[in-house]
Design a protein that fits this description.
The complex is a heterodimer of chains A (252) and B (177).
Chain A (H helix, E strand, L loop, with lengths): L2 H12 L7 H11 L1 H20 L7 H15 L3 H8 L2 H21 L1 H20 L6 E2 L3 H8 L18 E10 L2 E10 L2 E9 L7 E6 L2 E8 L2 E7 L3 H16 L1
Antiparallel strand pairs in A: 1-2, 2-3, 3-4, 4-7, 5-6, 6-7
Helix pairs in contact in A: 1-2, 1-3, 2-3
Chain B lengths: L2 H10 L3 H12 L2 H17 L9 H23 L7 H14 L3 H15 L2 H12 L4 H8 L3 H28 L3
The chains are: A alpha+beta (252), B mainly alpha (177).
Chain lengths: 252, 177
Amino acid sequence: MDCDEVSRFLDAYLDGELDGTARPEVQKHLDSCPDCRKEADRIAGFSSLVRETLPMYKAPAELKAKIRASLREASVPESHWLFRLRRPLMYAAAILVLGFGLASAFRTYAPNRNQELISQAIANHACSLMVDHLVDVTSSDRHIVRPWFNGKLDYSPPVADLAQEGYTLVGGRIDMLDKRPVAAIVYRRGSQVINVFVWPVVNGKIDFDVQSDRGYHFCGWNQAGLNYFCISAATAEDIEKFEDEFRDHVNL
Amino acid sequence: MGDERRQFDEIFLPHLDAAYNLARWIVQNDQDAQDVVQEAYIRAFKGFHGFRGGNGRAWLLTIVRNAAYTWFNKRLSDQKWVPYVEEKHAEIISIDQSATENRMEKQKEDLRGALERLPPEFREVIILYEIEGLSYKELALSLGVPLGTVMSRLSRARQRLREEFAQVKTRRAANGL
């Protein structure tokens, strides 16, 4: 290889991306050519300068919220599949029948436990608002609320600080749910109180999208071995947003 | 929230900064970069079932890149696109210079200025390789070009960047800054 040829391969060689017979040939040429060695040093030096000093742009804080909002919109099962179903009417009919079948099967099996759980959670939530028993520990500091649960429960529920997202931490209390004592973490946004129940998945995982009943909206999910159930009189959209934020902070 | 959405969030939201950085470098302004990234995340979500695992970051960045070029083409066809003007850029650089103090900051500014002067296909290959650490193979997939083209494009991009960097520095020296 001469200098011209080597210069074509030099970047790839330095990046460790040159395989086959070319690699030893470039190596051989570099051993004997001080000019190309100098050029190789320049390339490598400049490359590390770029890596170390090139300024990176950080995504503005509002972008995440914007993306979340548009993903929420995109994940609503809209026209997308309805559209496809519309075309062949026969399929539509068949799927309708199948749909009824599935729905009744789902009704029989899945939500019995969920229904019980939801009723209990609604009662807990309503009760926490009516009786003067919203929280047992009052603090907007998660470093006070979280340790408070220690010793009262056999697990440590994550308490997210969502002040920046507009949810004030009110405090925590212990409630009964899913046949066991669970942590209730309480947030407030404007006039709305949000209860988040957290407990281990020992009796089974929960996972369902936002539903409404008796004027409340609620949803449940599980994450890292814990069930989460959040409920409020806020709108369905607000609850989804809260779930997003809460999940995000538990992830951290 | 559905399972799919949750998985999607867990895989792709952590790469938001990388996505934004790439878009920002390609389209060169904040508002458009935000629009591009938002569009890219929706595209990614709609094509999520086509994601076969592997490098989620590279997969997402490819979509960001494509969304950025869609934006470019739209801009070009709208005729609102302002072509690169030497004077304007030179001015911006000299303003920035007066604000920067130490050597490191100056170097950062020079490098930024130099990269801004490269055509987008060079800018993106620099970001994807030097900053995001994609391999040549991933670059080939991402850019939709053969491996040989990746090699020569990256090589030329680095060379051009080095030249621009030297020029920016010389200009600064001439201005006595």
